[in-house]
Design brief:
mainly alpha; 10 helices; elongated
Length: 222
Amino acid sequence: SNQQHHQQTSTGTGVSHAEELMSILRRAHPTLWSSLEAILEELIVRFRPSLEEELLATVKALLKRANSQLDLGDSADTVTGFTNALARISAKFFRPPASSFEGHDDRAKKTVDFNSRYKALFEQDFIIGNSLSDSKSNETKTGLTLASIVARLRKWRRLLQARVSATPLSLPLQQASASMSSISNEIPDLWDGACDPRASPKSALRRGQRTDVSNITQSSSA
């Protein structure tokens, strides 16, 4: 109990320190902070996994669970559980673009294309209708069995895997994110050894001070 309290206190302290640091950075360097926020938003929007990748991961997880249930029998409750899970997956992945995407036309277009490409086929394969509201046997209501669900999940795994595999492994940054490609590639003006974890700002400062003193001495001698 004391250990849990200590961990919670440490976590809270760490979060408060991070928030304080962010607040100081925002006040002291507003331009830098604005640029960092823009870069972070761009990373979230442009470089997140594709909808196909996300659906593929979900299908693989559900298929693994379904395979583990095959030897336990094809009961109505088991089939109902999987058809309800598939209905929830459909509702999650094939909903219209959220209003938060209005400022990101590219993501909204991808969502619309994803829905038009897969929604009807997915719902047709898994006969999704009132699965969430009807708790009766879906084996009787839809004709699905656990074996047929597994077979169709495997089909979707192949379909999505082929689509994901066709995605280029690399793209020009200009094509992936025009705003990030516009960022200068110049090296920041940092102290000597700033990127070396063995170096420290204090030691670099001392080296810089010694260099300045040496330059002043040489100038005086001249």
